[in-house]
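We were asked to recover a plausible sequence for a given structure. The inputs and outputs are reproduced exactly as logged, with field labels preserved.

PROBLEM: sequence recovery
POSITIONS: 376
GIVEN STRUCTURE:
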């Protein structure tokens, strides 16, 4: 990246609209109703923690809630006061909506990763300096004395000093301020931070909601691929976007065809996949293939342990699962292999092993396990 190039936004999925630009939120009706109900009863909490897997819409919901709060007039309890709102919807041409899209709303603060010390790249963490900027922002008077809101995206990226500074803010919240804190793995956060927030837990999107959200983000999905994409993405729009951009459904189908040859692995097919992963500029494809192998093994182990096959994410997957994991003991072996291969992939990447060799080694380990199970 040239020194004059602007830094990418850390909270934007490459190739997709930023959450502040996303007008429609698909799914999560119960969570929206809960927030609206507390707003209308006058019991709005000062800090809301939005949790759930990556890519399910937490940031989009945070921006939607902030937009609603800042655009809704405060009730003066007069006889001509407006009735309680029935929806979180704010027209896209509303002045607040326009200012938020432009990053020019004076009553809103966005806390996210900033530039590193040399300002040549993004920092890997949210530093305490970024939290101090937010505290200074709240110390100033609001432009019109009304509500203020902040979005923190995400808590998972805060270092220890930043988390402690945020905790102090949560313990003594500024007047008329609502915080929306995004957390992908809340169990790893300070319990004291979690205890001071009201949680809205978002769940994976259903296939239709996922397809609609992906279309809104600029992705393209055929109707017949909706179930497979929902299965492989875990109901995450972000992961579905990555899968569609990198032909993930085709790669997963290729893995299924390869594993259908177990326990006598088709070496030419395996080599072709390894070479694809090791090609110049194919780092994202390699990462996706590692993810898909892990997904295949997890789905295989789960099917063997429960005796129930999930909806197929590739043709013939159910029959393949039944053959490779007919009993719980086989399921345990596949689950153990998944953990082993995941650790090997992390170590291999850390020491810059050749991606093609690393992937081929993983495929051979799958073949080895299948051979051992076939001899039992």
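RECOVERED SEQUENCE:
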């Amino acid at each position: 990246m040239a020194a004059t190039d602007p830094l990418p936004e850390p909270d934007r999925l490459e190739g997709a609209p930023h959450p502040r630009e996303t007008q429609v939120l698909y799914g999560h009706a119960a969570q929206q109703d809960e927030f609206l109900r507390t707003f209308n009863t006058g019991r709005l909490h000062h800090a809301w923690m939005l949790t759930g897997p990556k890519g399910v819409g937490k940031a989009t919901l945070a921006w939607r809630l902030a937009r609603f709060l800042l655009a809704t007039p405060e009730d003066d309890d007069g006889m001509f006061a407006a009735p309680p709102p029935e929806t979180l919807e704010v027209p896209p041409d509303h002045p607040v909506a326009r200012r938020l899209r432009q990053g020019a709303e004076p009553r809103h603060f966005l806390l996210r990763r900033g530039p590193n010390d040399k300002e040549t790249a993004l920092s890997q963490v949210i530093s305490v300096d970024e939290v101090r900027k937010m505290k200074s922002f709240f110390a100033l008077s609001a432009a019109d004395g009304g509500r203020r809101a902040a979005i923190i995206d995400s808590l998972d990226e805060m270092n220890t000093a930043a988390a402690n500074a945020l905790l102090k803010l949560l313990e003594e919240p500024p007047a008329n301020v609502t915080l929306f804190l995004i957390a992908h793995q809340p169990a790893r956060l300070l319990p004291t931070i979690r205890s001071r927030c009201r949680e809205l837990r978002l769940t994976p999107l259903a296939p239709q909601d996922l397809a609609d959200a992906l279309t809104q983000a600029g992705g393209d999905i055929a109707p017949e691929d909706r179930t497979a994409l929902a299965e492989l993405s875990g109901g995450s729009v972000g992961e579905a976007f990555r899968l569609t951009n990198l032909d993930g459904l085709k790669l997963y189908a290729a893995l299924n065809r390869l594993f259908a040859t177990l326990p006598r692995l088709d070496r030419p097919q395996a080599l072709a996949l390894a070479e694809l992963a090791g090609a110049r500029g194919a780092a994202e494809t390699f990462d996706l293939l590692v993810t898909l192998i892990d997904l295949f093994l997890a789905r295989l182990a789960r099917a063997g342990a429960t005796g129930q096959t999930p909806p197929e994410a590739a043709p013939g997957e159910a029959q393949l699962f039944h053959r490779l994991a007919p009993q719980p003991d086989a399921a345990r072996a596949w689950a153990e292999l998944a953990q082993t291969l995941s650790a090997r992939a992390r170590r291999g990447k850390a020491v810059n092993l050749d991606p093609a060799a690393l992937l081929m080694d993983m495929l051979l380990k799958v073949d080895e396990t299948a051979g051992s199970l076939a001899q039992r």
